[in-house]
Design goal:
The structure holds two protein chains of two kinds. By secondary structure, chain A is mainly α. Chain A is built from ten helices and two strands; from the N terminus they run H-H-E-E-H-H-H-H-H-H-H-H. The mean pLDDT of chain A is about 90. Classes of the chains: A mainly alpha, B alpha/beta.
Chain lengths: ~260, ~220
């Protein structure tokens, strides 16, 4: 028990040191510093929200359009950013592996944590701003929202665990990732609610983990305006299996990693 | 104690593999000082990286049962885009020290002064070596892994290393890769000679150095 506690203390120490380091290398200490971490999701969500507002009018199926875009874009940006940050995460940080207490899994986890942190801050920020001008509802069911957020995040993490090591093994992966992430957008539930779709399309999308997460989040926020279609077991099995594969790949890639 | 059991390591070379270490065995007890000798490309740096856990062996086992420094060499251990001070803070954090507790020692030993606020990538190899040594001495390891690097320092730095590492801390272990028989004679008690992927330990320094000179 004691050695577990010691190990855990070292783990926390390593994570916090890596976080601080990642923040200072990426954002520096100039102007707003690490607050930049939420800049990208925030800008994406608000600018696309404005475009949609002008293009499509104030509402979509009775839902405030800016709020709808924001609730979709912030998780999507998290997903895209987290995946692209995990590409090459080990190679660029390989000098850190000189210190035995740092494992390659830590390098992936820290980058992922940081994206989650940025997305969460952006979500809260944009929610509060939009709420204060009356176009964002007070969340209807926070538990449901958090459940959906967790599914979305774990889904993202499980893919990062695969993409990270694969990108070290083959350059092709590195080049394919941006395209694959883009093609995935229709299966992410970002721009549509399942209840707007035909039953057939809905059935297919029910197997997509991010759709379940997104439906839960939106139901948690908009309440009765959204009839959520989600299931628990599809994301559960997906996340479990993808994480196992990812952890296996991490072990493999660690053996062949060449550190200058 | 450090034990290497039947360690193999190869790197990709064209379509095949370049076998660097091919069944290496040795045991080093606490407090012993090994000179790691071998010709260029014989696997000295590779072995130091494997012992330090930077890279993993293809097969075989490495057992470490003491607090081992990270490999102190020309590269590695630092993030080039961060300043010396930020790197020092980072290393202090992951080894569980407060930077402010070791700052005076690090600044005094490294003599980097204002350059601590410059990115490490602008440092000369001598400056990097000074910083790495200062940090690893401040953190206090039981055994130091040193890859050539003392050689790049100026006379003053070498004198300091001798004073801190060998006079003030005579109980510490050392694995020291070098080509300088003068430094090796001064610092080490035993020779681990690498040749053709295998390692041989010579308890008699002069015997080991003699065979090394004949390679």
């Amino acid at each position: 028990m004691r050695s577990f506690r010691q190990g855990w203390a070292i783990q926390l120490r390593v994570w916090s040191a890596l976080m601080i380091r990642e923040l200072s290398t990426r954002f520096g200490r100039e102007n707003i510093g690490f607050l930049w971490v939420m800049a990208e999701p925030l800008l994406f969500a608000s600018l696309v929200g404005v475009i949609w507002r002008v293009w499509k009018g104030p509402e979509e199926h009775g839902i405030e359009i800016v709020a709808f875009v924001a609730t979709g874009y912030i998780p999507l940006t998290l997903f895209r950013q987290a995946i692209s940050r995990s590409v090459g995460a080990m190679k660029v940080n390989s000098s850190l592996l000189y210190h035995r207490q740092i494992k390659i899994l830590d390098l992936l986890l820290v980058r992922f944590f940081l994206e989650v942190l940025g997305a969460m801050m952006a979500y809260i920020f944009i929610g509060v701003i939009l709420m204060s001008i009356g176009i964002f509802p007070v969340p209807n069911d926070l538990g449901m929202f958090i459940g959906g957020w967790l599914i979305y995040c774990l889904f993202t993490l499980s893919l990062c665990l695969i993409v990270g090591p694969l990108s070290e093994m083959s350059e092709v992966v590195e080049k394919l990732i941006p395209v694959l992430v883009y093609v995935m957008i229709p299966f992410s539930g970002t721009f549509t609610l399942s209840s707007w779709l035909t039953p057939q399309a809905r059935e297919v999308l029910a197997y997509s983990p991010p759709v379940s997460g997104m439906e839960m989040m939106r139901h948690g926020i908009f309440g009765g305006l959204v009839t959520p279609y989600y299931n628990f077991w599809a994301p559960f099995w997906f996340i479990l299996i993808a994480s196992m594969i990812g952890l296996g790949l991490c072990r493999r890639v660690r053996r062949m990693l060449i550190v200058e | 104690m450090i034990v290497c059991e039947n360690v193999h390591k190869s790197y990709p070379l064209g379509h095949g593999r370049n076998r660097v270490l091919d069944g290496l065995n040795f045991t080093m007890n606490r407090g012993e000082r090994f000179a790691l000798l071998g010709r260029n490309g014989s696997g000295k740096s590779t072995l130091i990286k494997l012992i330090g856990g930077v890279e993993l062996p293809d097969s075989g086992k490495i057992i470490r049962s003491m607090a081992l420094s990270w490999p102190l060499g020309f590269v590695g251990g630092f993030q080039g885009s961060l300043t010396g001070a930020d790197n020092a803070r980072f290393i202090a954090r992951i080894y569980g020290r407060q930077y402010r507790d070791i700052r005076d020692y690090v600044e005094d030993f490294s003599e980097l002064g204002r350059q601590m606020k410059m990115p490490v990538r602008t440092y000369s190899s001598g400056m990097r070596a000074r910083l790495a040594f200062a940090l690893s001495l401040a953190i206090e390891f039981e055994c130091y892994l040193i890859d050539e690097v003392i050689m790049v320092g100026d006379h003053n730095f070498q004198k300091k290393c001798v004073a801190e590492l060998f006079e003030k801390r005579p109980d510490r272990g050392l694995i020291f890769a070098s080509h300088s028989s003068q430094l090796v004679r001064q610092f080490c008690q035993r020779v681990l000679l690498l040749d053709a992927g295998k390692g041989t330990v010579y308890d008699d320094m002069e015997e080991g150095l003699g065979i090394y000179d004949g390679l």
